[in-house]
Amino acid sequence: MNRLIYKNDFKLYELFVGLTVTIMITCDTLVYKTFDFYSVKITASGIIFSLCYLLSAVTTEVYGYKLGTRIVWVIVLCQSFFVILVNLCSIYQVDNNHISETYQSLFGEFWRVMLGTWISVPASYFCNGYIISRLKIYFKGRLFLVRYMLSAMIAQGILLITAYPISLSSKYSFFELINIISTTWSYKVIMSTLLLPIGILLARKVKKIEKIDTFDYNISYNPFNVFKQSSENESNTAH
């Protein structure tokens, strides 16, 4: 049975927004931190970031493409605000003390992260949401495993090849970047596989709590229109 869904009906949507923004800002803070495993470099942010795609996949699966994509714009706004404040504070009065010099050394070029965010986050998340949404209709709501893994592999690859060259080029050589990007993508795919059971259980649980399962029939996938009211030709169906 179809029913009209109002934003205020949702019990967990705001929680998904807050968790996603928190994880993304944590990834920004740890973007320069790497771990070495037998000469293989993996960024700390790469370890944590898989949780974002898990939340994004579940959000789009439950609430649909438009509400899932709205979170992307919230991420971009919050990340930009965070990076600007940290960057400005790190370059002001650098000679004040040793701690200030450390902050400047670490976050003096933090603006690169913001540039990477403006390009990589929308590109990867819009791709992730589009794949989840379209394949959900194609598979008639089945095979969440296939939809989740395919979207994670493609979207996270887009994120890495757009974000890391911008945010890490001043810290690592070209060949180190290639190493970081390739190994981090491989690790993200492994992490996505490990998180898959959690994603399946979480999607089922949230659907049960919210009492919806949204299918995006005939909607506009223009990411700039996600805050507009649906047109007469669009039909977000929530069961």
From TrEMBL:
The chain crosses the membrane at residues 12-32, 38-59, 71-93, 113-132, 144-165, 185-203. The keyword Transmembrane applies. It comes from the Bacteria. It holds the Pfam family Vut_1. The keyword Transmembrane helix applies. Keywords: Membrane, Plasmid, Transmembrane, Transmembrane helix. PANTHER family: QUEUOSINE PRECURSOR TRANSPORTER-RELATED. This is VUT family protein. It comes from Arsenophonus apicola.
